Amino acid sequence: MATEKPETESPKWWIDESRSIPEERQQPVIPPAITRFYVTARGFEQERARSGLVEVNRKLLAEADPPDGQLSVLNPIGERSPSELLDKIRRSLPLPPGARGVIVDCGRMARVILTGTPFGDRILEFNFNRGEPSFDVWVRGDWKQEIAFRNVNDLHRRARGLIERYLGAKALDEPEFLT
Asked: Which of 27, 70, 118, 163 is the most buried (most CB within 10 A)?
């Protein structure tokens, strides 16, 4: 004689609990692409990558050789962003005295690297990537802060304040600022 269970405790009619899972399906299968990723990432040194990025940023600034108070443009892959986008970026990034920078234009995204005086002492990096807009700051080669933004427009709105905070006259007057 069968006993009745409440509906919440009884197995549903479409679940076949009597079948066993074949042995080969019980082990998780790791796709080859993921395997290559983990092998590549094994031994990855975050600090070394950060210092390498600082060096890349300095090299891009040196290659662009922007005049004081201006932004130069580099097109490392030959693709170009619409001029309206570059103009919007320029308007978002007013440079204080002694600052200069480079817009690294990769067509679908743009990155801006700014520095003040002395050259390379402080580096600000703005990533105007639609998927993951962000801001990073380095002081004397040490990474100090990263800020991720909801969207590119949020980064455009906050860029002026970030420049003032890290490259403005008040920030530069404090030699131990962010050390």
From this structure: 163
Rounded CA-CA distance 43/70 in Å is 40
SS3 string of 75-121?
A: CCCCCCCCHHHHHHHHHHCCCCCCCEEEEEECCCCEEEEEECCCCCC
Q: What is the pLDDT of residues 27-57, one digit of tens each?
A: 444 444 444 443 444 444 444 444 456 689 9
Neighbours of 110 (CB within 10 A): 21
* pTM of the full structure: 0.68
Peptide bond into 118 cis (omega under 30): yes
